[in-house]
Amino acid sequence: MTMTDKKRALEEAKKVVAWIEKDELTDAEKKQIHDESIENFNENVNPGWLEYRKSVSTDAAFIEWTDSVDHFEDLNGTQFIDCLGGFGIYTCGHRNPEILKTVQAQLNRYALHSQELIDPLRGYLAKITALATPGDLQYCFFTNGGAEAVEMALKLARLATGGRWYISTVGAFHGKSMGAISVGGKGAYREDYLPMIQQVQHVEYGNADAAEAAVKNLVAVGEKVAGIIVEPIQGEGGVIIPPAGYLKRLREICDQYKIALIFDEIQTGMGRTGTLWRCEAEDVCPDIMTYGKAFGGGIMPITGIIARPWTWVDKLVDNPWILGSPTFGGNPLACAAAISTMRFMLENDIPGLCKKRGEAFMARLADLQKKYPTVLTAFRGAGLLICMEFPEAEVGYAVTKELFSRRVMTAGTLVNAKTVRIEPPAVLSDESREAVITALDEALAAVKAEFKL
Ligand SMILES: Cc1ncc(COP(=O)(O)O)c(C=O)c1O
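^ thats the input. predicted complex w/ pyridoxal-5'-phosphate below
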């Protein structure tokens, strides 16, 4: 980097700081931000982003600038009703005022931690999480992203059991770090990075016999299994709800073979599926559970794991850093957000609201399916984790694009492009829901005509 570059970097930074701190932008500034943002993404982020946006939007160039309750707003004040929910992070709404107030108060005290003194918020959040999770789940380890939490869960399972092998499922999504893609259900995310964790067997999702056979066969040939990892409902796989009793059977298998049962509740947890944790609906307690997304109230990124005492082995107590030591994991701002989120969620029965509003949404989808059976071939969901299914991925993309042009934001799922998710904030008003249904009605009619379905 030359001295000239540093001077330009300073100028750029000063310019942007002034815009962030400004209440109102002029039209000229808005245009400048718009044009420069596109250039910056192409030059310094990834030109693929704008290409991708073109595939789902009629105008790739909306610049996100503010948000509130159940919508995003672009630089020019165009509002989008949020039916994507940031892949599930906005359960408590956008910039929930109560959570924001707590985070702002903490920001005025101290933002990040010394790394050395006892940070009280981390302890309180761990206690609250232990109280709010099933069974004897007790010890928390906080991380920054979902994949990072999954890494901790995988490592802890090995540490606790001495086993090496993991059983995962077809269609699973656990993030994109090396461990997470190793147990992920889509080879395309692995191919370029091989080799990775070798000791993984994928079995059919929802089929407990297949999981049992995999464990049994590994044990029979002298291998040691660390655990079974599953999402209680597969989110990115296309909102796949396993048969009732599946999770219970996995619990029994893990008990029988003394291996760890890991539930990845990063997407299904924090009320999204109609109960605080999805495993509660099935009355099953895992040995290790991950959480994330909505845990920080849509304001701060915070994820983590909680584990039962038997997994918290002496080795980990003797050396608390052996599992991980993320600089920002469980930082005070993030913990303040998560504590406030838990308060908001429990005080206002947000899981119950997700259930109620999810049922209302699905009733309206049933009407639309009757009207457009050749386009909307199926829909399913639990709480506000809902997906619509289309005959092929192109049709799903077209519906997403039509919805976007009507200012409703949705997206496909990562593993299964034929499905489009509806994952709005729980605070989405009835009025907004009806606006979404009207837009969807029009979108389905347009796509039916376009594809001659
Ligand atoms: C079940 C599940 N696990 C893990 C992850 C990864 O989370 P992150 O994107 O924060 O790494 C996701 C993200 O969608 C998820 O749905």
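The chain has a mean pLDDT of 94.
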